[in-house]
Specification:
The structure is a homodimer.
Chain A: E1 6-11, H1 20-28, E2 33-38, H2 53-58, E3 63-66, H3 77-88, E4 92-95, H4 105-114, E5 118-120, E6 139-145, H5 152-165, E7 170-173, H6 177-183, H7 197-204, E8 213-216, H8 228-238, E9 242-247, H9 265-276, E10 284-290, H10 297-311, E11 315-316, H11 318-321, H12 324-332
Parallel strand pairs in A: 1-2, 1-3, 3-4, 4-5, 6-8, 6-9, 7-8, 9-10, 10-11
C-alpha cells in the first residue's frame, strides 16, 4: 500500500503531456493531493499549493509521486536528487516511470537508511495467475478504444463517480500507472508477462455479489498493431457485461503510427463485441465517449449528437459533459 | 548460441507427455541429436543410443538438453544433480523449464568454475522493441490454431522441410522452447512482456528479399481465453501472407478449460483472417492441418477429405501424410 496523501511532482517540466500522471491525480483525487512540487523553471501548475518537501510533510503528505514522463521513462539525475531530498524530509517515493526506483542504488540505500518506501507501480505483483475464463459473479464494465490514449481512464473514473452519486456501488479497477496511483491498487498491464494478461484482469476484478459494478480501465486498442494483444487479453479477462468505446475525434492516425488510420467506430465496436463474447455472450455496448478537449464547445456538442444518431448509442465527452446518459443506458437493462 | 550436437535428457520420466521437448528434437533434428540420457527407471526411449555424460561427450555432444517438463516446470533435485554431473563431464546445459538454471546457485557456481554455459531458453532477449506494424519485405506464413498444443510447431517444421525439398528458401521462426532448441534461435513468446508481443515477432522475422519464406510457429488460439492476447499480438507482428489452421479433431474441450468448447473451423479461420488483415490486407489461408495421431489411418484419411470438401482448402495431417497439397496451394498464387 502506498501511503497517502501525495505531493505531486512537476519538476522542471514545461510540456503538459509530460505531467499526465500528476495531472490525473490532481483531477481525480484532489482529496489525497496536498500540493505540487515544481522548480522555478517549470511553467506548469496543477492549481495546487506549491510546496517544498518539508512543507509538504508538515501539511501531512506521506508520498512524493514522480508523476511525470520524459523521453524513455528515464530517472534522470534531477529526479534522483529530488527523490533523495524528499526522503530526507520524511516522504516515501512512488513512480510509474519505466526505469525503476529500486534499480538505483543511491535511492535504495537512502530508503533503507531512512526507513522510507520506494514504490515502482510499474512492477506487477508476483502472484498473477493464468486466466481461466470461468464465468464469475458480478457486473463489469470495460472501456475500450479506437486507439491508445483516447480517454479510457478518464471515462472509467467519470463512470465510477457518476454511479457512486446515484448510490450504486462501483469500483474503479486500474490497469495503468496513473490509474493505480489514483486507486491505490491495480495492475500495470503493459508490464505483465504475455501468458498472464487475462489472468491479471481476473485477479484485479474478482467475483462480487453486492450488486455493484467493477469499472475496468481499458488499454490500447484491438486496432493498434503494437498493443492489440494486451487489449485482447484484457477483454477476455474482464468478461465485461458492458463496453464503452472511447475515441479521439481529432487524432490524425493511430498513436505513433502515421501509416495506420483509426478504425471506423461501428467496425471497432463490432470487433470488440465479437472478441468479448468469448468470455461473456451477453456483452453489450452502453455508450461512446469522445475526447473533445481540442474542439470548441458547439462543435463538440454537435459531434456528440451526430455520433449518437449514427450509432444509436448515448455519446458524450465524459469529462466535459458528464456521463449521465451512458449511466442511464447502463442501468436501464442491466443483468440481474 | 547453444552449442550442438545435443544429448537429450529423459531422466526418470514415464509419461510420454513429459518428454515433449526431447522428442521434438529427436524427430526434427536427428542430425544434431547424438543420444539420449535416461535412468534405469525411465520407461521411455526416443530410439537414440543410450549414453552417459562421458560417453556422450566422447561422441561429440556439446550440450545436455533438459527437454522434459514436470508439474510446475520445476528444476528438481534429480535434474540439478544430473546437470552438475553433465557439466563435470564437459557438457553445457540447456533448459526450457519455467524455473531457470541461472537461478540455481549450485549450477551457476559449477558453470563458472568449469567454464560451462547455462542456457535458459525461456528468457527472452533483452532488446525486444515495441512493434511498429510497418509493412516489411518478404513472404511469411503463420500457423494458427483452434487451441493450444494442436500441432502448430510440427506443421510449421513440416512446411519448412517440404519447401526446402522443392528448392524454395524457407526459415522456421521459433516462438516456443522446443522450437527454439530445434532452430537454435527464436523467441519464447509466452515469457515476453505484454507490450512487446508483436515487436518480438517483427524482430525474429525481419524483412527478407531473397524470395524465400519465413515460416512462423504459432502459439495459443484467438479462442483460448487464457492466451488469446499472445495469439493476437503474434498475428499482428507476423504480417502473414499465408495462414495454416491447425486443429486436433479429438480434443474434447479447450486445453485446460472443460467449460470452453473448441471453435468451429470456418469461424476460427474467419476470426484469424479478420485480425491478420490489420497488418496485411492480402492475407489468405492455404490449408488445414489436423493432428490425427489418435485416429486409425482410414478414419484420418476420411476426416481430411471431409474437411477439405467442407472448407475448400487442402487438408492433411502434416506429420502423417505430408504437406504437399498445402505447399502447392501456398506456391500457386503467392505474392510477387
Amino acid at each position: 500500500m502506498i501511503e497517502t496523501p501525495y505531493l505531486l511532482y512537476l519538476g522542471h517540466s514545461n510540456d503538459a503531456a509530460d505531467i499526465k500522471t500528476s495531472r490525473g491525480l490532481a483531477v481525480f483525487r484532489p482529496d489525497i493531493s496536498v500540493g505540487e512540487y515544481r522548480h522555478d523553471d517549470c511553467g506548469l501548475t496543477l492549481g495546487l499549493p506549491r510546496m517544498d518537501f518539508a512543507a509538504a510533510r508538515a501539511a501531512g503528505a506521506r508520498t512524493l509521486v514522480l508523476g511525470i514522463a520524459n523521453a524513455g521513462g528515464k530517472l534522470g539525475e534531477d529526479l534522483i536528487v529530488d527523490a533523495l531530498a524528499a526522503m530526507e524530509a520524511g516522504l516515501d517515493i512512488a513512480s510509474g516511470l519505466h526505469q525503476r526506483l529500486n534499480a538505483v542504488p543511491r535511492l535504495t540505500e537512502a530508503a533503507a537508511r531512512l526507513g522510507r518506501a520506494l514504490h515502482d507501480v510499474r512492477d506487477p505483483r508476483p502472484d498473477i495467475p493464468v486466466g481461466n475464463g470461468k464465468r464469475r459473479a458480478g457486473k463489469r464494465l470495460l472501456t475500450v478504444g479506437t486507439d491508445c490514449s483516447v480517454g479510457k481512464m478518464y471515462t472509467t473514473l467519470c463512470l465510477a463517480s457518476a454511479l457512486e452519486k446515484r448510490g450504486v456501488a462501483a469500483d474503479f479497477r486500474a490497469t495503468g500507472q496513473t490509474g493505480i496511483l489514483v486507486a491505490g491498487d491495480g495492475v500495470p498491464l503493459d508490464a505483465v508477462v504475455a501468458d498472464f494478461i487475462s489472468g491479471a484482469i481476473e485477479q484485479i476484478s474478482p467475483a462480487r455479489t453486492d450488486g455493484g459494478w467493477d469499472l475496468i480501465e481499458g488499454q490500447g486498442s484491438l486496432y493498434h498493431p503494437s498493443f492489440a494483444g494486451v487489449s485482447m487479453g484484457l477483454l477476455h479477462g474482464a468478461q465485461p457485461d458492458a463496453l464503452v468505446l472511447c475515441h479521439d475525434p481529432v487524432r490524425p492516425h493511430m498513436r505513433g503510427l502515421p501509416h495506420y488510420a483509426l478504425p471506423d467506430l461501428a467496425e471497432c465496436l463490432e470487433a470488440n463485441l465479437r472478441a468479448a463474447r468469448l468470455t461473456n455472450a451477453d456483452v453489450r455496448v452502453v455508450g461512446i465517449a469522445l475526447n473533445t478537449s481540442a474542439m470548441p464547445e458547439d462543435e463538440a456538442i454537435a459531434l456528440c449528437a451526430k455520433t449518437e444518431a449514427a450509432l444509436g448509442l448515448p455519446t458524450s465527452d465524459p469529462y466535459r459533459f458528464g456521463v449521465e446518459a451512458i449511466v442511464d443506458q447502463l442501468l436501464h437493462d442491466e443483468p440481474a
